[in-house]
Each structure stands twice: as C-alpha cells, then as structure tokens.
Design goal:
The protein is built from one helix and 28 strands. By secondary structure, the chain is mainly beta. The longest helix has 6 residues. The protein has a 17-stranded parallel beta sheet that branches.
Length: 280
C-alpha cells in the first residue's frame, strides 16, 4: 500500500475504491481521480471539488455540502470528527449532512480514515436527507463510521451506495433507512458490527421503507432490547450473500419482540450467504 507522502508528492491520484483498483459490486471499472489538498483542520469545503485531507478535521458544527453542488472527499487515513456541537444540532442531524440535490462521494485510500462524533454530540456520523426534494446521491468507499451517539449512517431520503465501509459501535443503528418508498440503499462488502441500543428496534440495520440490497458483507454482533438485532426490515430487504451472525435481542415476555438475526414485516429475499448463531 502506498504511503501518505507518496500520494501527496504525486498529486494524490487514485481510484475511488482505494490505492489500487478492486472491483466491488457495480463498481467494475477503474476511474482514476486526482484530488486537491485540503489542509484546514476545523472545516470542510464550501465549493464543489475533489479533495483529500492532509490532516484530521474536527468540526464544531455539522458540515452541510451546498445544495446542488458536487463533492468528493478522500479521507486519506484521517478522521472527520464532530466535537462539542451546540445542542441546536442534536438528534436529527449528522457530522456530515447531505441535503437536497447534493452529490457526495467519501473514500479512503489508506484504510484508517473515519467519521465519528464525541460523546457531547447527539448526532449521526452521516445523514442523507432531501426533505422530499431532489434526492442526494451519496457514494461511500471504505472508511469507518463509528462511535456516533445516533447512527453510523442515516438515510432519510436519498440514493446511497456503500462499498467496503465499516460501521461500528454506534449507539443507535449502524445504518438506518427510514423515509421514502423510493429510496434505494446498496451495501457491498461492508462490515456492520457492535451497533445497537437498548430502547429501539434494529441494531445493525434498521430498514423501514424503500429497497435495501445487501451484497457479501457481514452483519455481526449487533444488539437491541426490542426487534431485529442484526436487521429490522419493514421495506424490501434483499440479502445477496454474506453473513448475519452473532446478533441478539434481549427480550422477555413480549411475543412481538425478537428476531436476533432478522425481524421482518416487509419483503425479505435471501439468496445464499449464512444466517447463523443469532440469539433472542
């Protein structure tokens, strides 16, 4: 794997999927991208563009990519962290908030990049929500979305593709998809692990509406005290291989709770893979 300094010296050019191209899901063809250095440690760009981080970035309020603009951010092994947000940003918000008609790609050529928030921020890592206007399109290549007090990635209204990311140790859901029947969420080769809350449905993935396609990743060791330790599905959930294991619900006495691996009241299609060793 190339070093950070090698990338910087050569102008930081690589495929979105990493330092060397790997076919993942519908990402078949190498498309090399040249990035511009982003050196500010306290904010992220306003103008459209293709950037790579040269340092960790600590935000004191959410980053709102501008409506109608297009951004590509390479974490380059660095972190984006929300810290000490004012309480007006709490709850239904994110460290990064992709709104209407935004095109956003976040990648990580090194493998250790992350999006997170500290304990003073009651937000998700990434929130995607158009508010019933023109849907944003968000592509995630690698990196970790972890240690957020809400969800790792929350999709209110938009089109989202996740490739080989890790979603880990988020207090609510690992990934949630909530609002619209027309939402499409594609998850390729991701690791969704150790997420979940004692007071809500869904630990690893909470999928309420729309279509979620899951390909060859792992949903492991997530937990809830209600329904769907691994996956809670109320829309259409297509499981195209991978693993759902070690998830649990800690429920007693309520016949409507349970589903250590999957709790389904929508449409569930399973094609291959392994669903095993989940517990209710």
């Amino acid at each position: 794997m190339l070093s950070l300094t090698t990338f910087a010296a050569s102008g930081h050019t690589h495929c979105l999927c990493g330092a060397s191209h790997t076919a993942i899901g519908d990402h078949k063809t190498e498309a090399r991208t040249t990035f511009t250095a982003w050196d500010d440690s306290t904010k992220l760009p306003y103008e459209s563009g293709t950037y790579y981080l040269t340092t960790n970035v600590t935000l004191s309020s959410p980053w709102f990519p501008e409506i109608g603009k297009s951004y590509t951010i390479c974490l380059n092994g660095h972190s984006i962290q929300g810290s000490n947000f004012d309480s007006k940003w709490y709850s239904d918000n994110g460290v990064i908030y992709a709104r209407e008609n935004v095109k956003l790609t976040i990648c990580d050529c090194v493998g250790s990049g992350s999006v997170s928030s500290d304990s003073a921020c009651d937000v998700s890592g990434l929130l995607v929500d158009a508010g019933y206007k023109t849907k944003p399109v968000v592509n995630i290549f690698g990196g970790s979305y972890l240690n957020n007090k809400r969800d790792g990635i929350k999709v209110g209204d938009g089109f989202v593709n996740i490739y080989k990311a890790t979603i880990k140790k988020n207090t609510h859901y690992g990934i949630s998809s909530l609002t619209r029947d027309s939402n499409v969420l594609n998850i390729y080769d991701a690791k969704i692990t150790q997420n979940g809350s004692t007071s809500i449905d869904g630990g690893g993935i909470y999928h309420r509406l729309g279509t979620c396609n899951f390909y060859n990743g792992k949903i492991t060791n997530n937990n809830t005290n209600q329904r769907g330790g691994g996956v809670y599905n109320g829309g259409t959930f297509n499981f195209f291989g991978g693993e759902i294991s070690g998830n649990s619900t800690n429920t007693t006495g309520d016949k409507d709770y349970g589903g250590g691996g999957i709790y389904n009241y929508g449409t569930l299609n399973v094609s291959g893979g392994k669903i095993t060793s989940n517990r209710t």
